[in-house]
Batch of 2 targets.
Target 1
Amino acid sequence: MPAPLPVAVLVSGTGTNLQALLDTVHGRDAEIVAVASNRAEAPALARASDRDVPTAVFARDAYEDRAARDRAMAAWLGEHGARLVVLAGYMALLGEEFLAAFPGAVINVHPSLLPAFPGAHAIEDALAYGVKVFGVTVHFVDAGVDTGPVILQRSVELPDAGSAEDVLAALRPLEHEMLPRAVSLFAAGALRADPANPRRTVIAAAVGGAG
Ligand code: GAR
C-alpha cells in the first residue's frame, strides 16, 4: 500500500465536508496534515482539532492584501507537507501565486452543476432561476471563479424545491461521497487531463466507476 497522500483542507464554515474527509479517507488513502480557515469562528476548525489535525487562521484583515495572506497560507500548508489542497466550503478566492505553489493539486466542491451557477450563492441562484435539476461538482481549481476542469459531477432532480435549506440537505450526501472519492482518485494518481481536451479529466479505468 502506498503511503497516504498528505492533504491540506481549507474551510470557512460548518465543515461537514471536512468531517466526511476525516471520517473516510483520513488515515487511509490520505492524511489530513493541516486545516486552514479565513474565518476564526468557522466551526470546521473544531472538527480538525478534535482529530488532532493542526489548524491555523489566515484572516484577510491580518495581512496587507490578499496576495500576502495567500503567501502566508501556502507557506504554512507547505511546511506541513501538503501535496493536495482541498477547498471544502472555503469561501474566498485564491490567487495565481497560491495555485502555482500547488500546481494541478487544488480541488474544490461546489453545490451546482458547473458551469451553471458559479460563485458564493450557487443554491440560491439556482432556486431563483427556477431549475428542476440541482447538483454537485468537484473540480480542479484555476484562477477563475469555479471554472477549473470537472473531476466528478452528479445531479439530483428536485422539481418542487422549496428552500435553499431543502436543496442543501439533498446535496449534502452527494458532496460527502464525491469529495472523499475525488481525494482517493487523486491519491491513486488516477486523474489525468484528456490530451484531446485538457479541460476533460479522465479517470483511470482500474479505479474508475460511476461519477
Ligand atoms: C458546501 O455545500 C460546498 O459545496 C459549498 O459550501 C458548503 C460548505 O459546507 N461551497 C461553495 O459554495 C463554494 N463556492 P461545509 O462547511 O459543511 O463543508
Note: The mean pLDDT is 96.
Target 2
Amino acid sequence: MEFLDLPPMLGAAGSVRLPGSKSISNRVLLLAALAEGETDIRDLLASDDVERMLEALSALGIEWSGAEEANRYRVRGVGGPFPVKRAELFLGNAGTAFRPLTAALALSAGEYRLSGVPRMHERPIGDLVDALRQLGADISCLGNEGYPPLLVRPASLRAGGVVRVRGDVSSQFLTALLMALPLSGVETTVEVVGELISRPYIAITLELMARFGVRVEREDWSRFVVPGGVRYRSPGTVFVEGDASSASYFLAAGAIGGGPVRVEGVGVNSIQGDVRFAEALAQLGARVAMGDNWIEARAPAEGRLKAFDLDLNHIPDAAMTLAVAALFADGPCRLRNIASWRVKETDRIAAMATELRKVGAEVEEGADYLRVTPPPRLCPAAIDTYDDHRMAMCFSLVSLGGCRVRINDPKCVNKTFPGYFRAFAQVVRPVPVIAIDGPSASGKGTVAAEVAAALGWHHLDSGSLYRLVAHAATRAGIALGDEPRLAALAACLPARFEGGRILLDGEDVGDAIRSEACSAGASKVAVLPAVRAALFDRQRDYRAAPGLVAEGRDMGSVIFPDSALKIFLTASAEARAERRYKQLIEKGLAASMIDLLQDLRERDARDAARTVAPLQQLPDAVLLDTTSMGVAQAVAFVLDLARERGLEIRG
Ligand code: DC
C-alpha cells in the first residue's frame, strides 16, 4: 500500500490556483457534445473523472481535441443524440459521468453498456432508471436491480408529458434527466418526488443548460419544465470555474493554521453551491473575505474555531471538510442532514467516523448525521482513504494540529485534484528540523543541545534510544543479537527524558548508558532492522513546534528526510578518541587512548557498513569537520546556516 507521511505543521498561509470544477467540467463536456457547433472550453479540470467522460465521448463519436497542460479543449458538438449507436463505456467511479450519460444514451436510440469500478456498481441509479423507463426507455440492470452495470437498448419513446423522479437520494438523477430531455424534442415536465437534496448542484445544471441555450422553467425545487423543439447551441467559449469543493481544504487550512490562505478561481459570482462553505467557516469564527475570483480565510481573531451544529444538506461535499475542521473546534460539533454521504465514493459517514476516531476524536454516527467531539490532543494515525479523494484531502488538515499523519493511497486524489498534495505543500509550513548526523564522539550531542537551546527548539538524542535498548536488554538478560526480543523491548521502552535526565523505568540511567560497554552494545543493536523500525515513530514524535534539532546517524536520511538543514558533523578518529579520553578521565574513570581509538574505529566501521540506515554523508548535508574547532564555533556555524535557510531564530 502506498502512503504519504505529512509532518506536523506550524501553520498555513499563501495562495493556491484551483483546478477546474469537476461538476462544471463534466456537465460542460456533455452539453458541448450534444450542442450544435464547436465549444472552446478553458480551464477544464484534468482528473480521472473528467478523463472517463472524455473517453466516453470519443467512444460515442464525439470529436474533441485538447491539451491537458493548457487545460484547453475544443469539442465539436453533434447537435443532437450521439451518432455512434453501439458502444461499451467504462466510467470508473465517476458519478458525474455515469448518471448524465445514462440519461443521454437512453434518448440516443442505440445499444450501450455502461459499467464502472466495483464501488460504482454499489452506488444507486434505480431512481434515474425508473424515471427514464417512464419515458419508454429500455434499460436493464445487468447486476442488481437499481444498480450499474446497465444495458440501454433502442426503444420508442413516449412523447412528452410528466416524469417523476426521486430527489432525496442523489441530485444527480435530476441533473441527468434535465440535461438529456432536450434530446427528446418535446416539452417534458419533471416532478421531484421527496425533498430535493443538494439543490445548489441543480442550480449549476440549470445555469449551464441556459448557457447552451436551453432555459428550464422551475417552480420551487419540485417542478421543472424542459421546453420542446429546442437544441443545445454552443456558446462559443466556456470558462470553467475553479472547483469550490477543492477550495474547502485550503480555506479550512487558513482557518486552522493562521492564514491567510487564498484560493483563486472562485469567488462571489460563482455558480457553485460549495462556495457557501466559506459562510459555514465564518460561522465557526474564521475570518473570511471574498472577491470576484478569490476567497480567503484566516483563523479567528482569538481562540479556537467555535463548535457548530449545522444543516449541511446544501454543501454535501465541502461538508466533509467541516467534519475534520471539527477536530479544531472548542467543543462538540454536529453535522446534520448529510444522508447522501452514504452513497458517494464510499459510505462517507462510516468512513469519516472511523478515521476521525483514529486521531482521537469521539464520534457518534447516525443515519444522516455525525457528532464529533474533538480530542484534547490529536494522535498520529494512518488514515485509510477508501478510494475516496475527499477523505485523503480532508485528513491532510490533521497535520495542522501539530500532529503527523499518514495518508494511505494518496493517489486517490487524482479523481478530482491530481496536484493536491503539491498545492497543500505550497501553503503549509512544516515544523522545521535540523538534522545533525555523524560518527560517535564527534561532539554532535553537545553541539545539537546548544543549537536547540539557542533556538528554543526540542532536542532528540537518538543515540540514547539505542543505548537505552542495549542497557535494558543487558539488564533483562536478552542477547544483543536476539532481534525479535530486542525489537519488542524497543517498541515499548519505558524511557523518559526529563530536564536533561534520562530515566528508564523511573531510574536515572544517564551515566550508565554512556559507558563504553553500553556504547558498543548500542552499536550492535542499532544494526538490527527490526529494532530500528521499532524506534522509527518514537523518534518522529519528537518533531513538535517550534522546531527540532535531531542528532544521530540517520536523522537526515531516514527519520527526517525533509529536514530544513542537514549537517554531517565529524572529526578525525584521533581527535574524537582524545575528547572521549578527557571526558572519562574527568569523571575519574580509567581509560586508554589506544583502546578508545580502536573501539571508535570498530564502531565507525559497523555504523557505516550496516545495510539499514548506514552512517553516511548525504549529498544535501553540509560537512562540519570539528577536528580543530571548539564547540562554540561549531554551534555558531550551524546557527548561521539556519539563519541563511530562513529558519526562525529566537532572540
Ligand atoms: O550517537 P551515539 O554514540 O550515542 O550512538 C550510539 C549508537 O547508536 C551508535 O553506535 C550508533 C547508533 N545510532 C544509530 O544507529 N542511529 C542513530 N540515529 C543514532 C545512534
Note: The chain has four domains: 3-18+242-430, 22-239, 431-455+547-651, 458-545.
